[in-house]
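Q&A log
Question type: sequence-to-structure
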Amino acid sequence: MNTFSRWRRPRRLAVALAASLLVAALGGPMIGAQGDDDEQWQALHEAVHSGRIVPLTEVLDWLEARYRGQVLEIELDHEDGERRYEIEMLGPQGQVVEFEFDAEDGRLMEIEGVNIEGMRRQ
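Response status: OK
Response body:
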């Protein structure tokens, strides 16, 4: 199995999880009528399509190119009036590192954790 295949499996799960979290962050509670869920998905799709939110896949591709590890958790938060992706990764030496990105332009805002350099790709 090549690196690409290993990344795609966990990433699909992460993207599915993230999509649920994004809908909750954009549209309120996930519990409700089917119509409400459809509206939340439409709002998310429109936010990405119109460029108000960077597609999660772009952020994950950026991380894969620069850091080694497995995605554990993804959230879309509103912090200080900004939307932010918070992505928690498990590194090759067992370290847990959180990457915070501006969801509107995709730029890395902050990295927190131990032995971050041990995850960096050469």
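Response note: Helices lie at 3-27, 34-49, 56-66.
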